[in-house]
């Protein structure tokens, strides 16, 4: 049985965690299927945006603890595969939007933080529950800590306390927390905006967001000026400027999407 499902429409591929029986826990089979789905989406030119969603009331409960306990003898626990998943999401060249319609714990928060945008319901709950199990949120720190304010990170990492969607938005874990009835409309609105960007420009903008500062402001400006010129001179840049002047949609907007 598939644990991850995909569906594509009008430039948006929805990748759905579909293992509600164990609260979409991060088992080796689920993470392997998720990596396969992302690898397929990255090479498909029809995929402009990926939405990471879920079935059942829980977004993701974190590591599959039953599998982890059984695998201790092997020397490689399933949670270690999570590093590959987080890297794939973080480095994904197309926008990734996380749709969170229910609770997330531990490793599930790493998935949320790895996405470019994340929308949750106000009622959704979150917790870095690792310390209460005698372990630490090590792997997910690569994606989580760049998102959180330092004081919030210290509080929530050390206490393991549960917090709600509003707090998640306040500290930067998610982009927005909305009423449950508005979750899908908010995600759709973000997707509608994202597919209007040029594919290469979106990838370049993501690189800017991950870019480390240079040794000086002049070095930074030299690098950024060169990048800017490259995009203005590119075929995509020429098409975008021409389409704007001619008051028409650029060629990259998928069928079924309005300007």
The spatial strand order of the largest sheet comes to: 1-2-3-4-6-9
| Low-pLDDT sequence parts | none
Taking all Cα atoms into account, the compactness measure Rg is 19 Å
* Average pLDDT score: 94
| Strand residue percentage | 5-15%
Shape: globular
Strand elements, count: 9
Largest sheet: 6 strands, mixed
Instruction: Determine the N-to-C terminus distance.
Output: 39 Å
Q: Can you give the helix content as a percent range?
A: 40-55%
Total helical elements: 11
Helix-strand topology string? EEHEHHEEHEEHHEHEHHHH
Structural class: alpha/beta
Report on this structure.
The structure is a single chain. It contains 11 helices and 9 strands. It has a 6-stranded mixed β-sheet with strand order 1-2-3-4-6-9, with helices on both faces. Strands 5-7-8 form a 3-stranded mixed β-sheet. Helices cover 44% and strands 15% of the residues. With 259 residues, the protein is an alpha/beta fold. Helix 1 links the parallel strand 2 (12-17) and strand 3 (49-54). It comes from Paractinoplanes globisporus. InterPro entries: ClpP/crotonase-like_dom_sf (IPR029045), Enoyl-CoA_hydra/iso (IPR001753), Enoyl-CoA_hydra_C (IPR014748), Enoyl-CoA_Hydratase/Isomerase (IPR051683). Belongs to the enoyl-CoA hydratase/isomerase family.
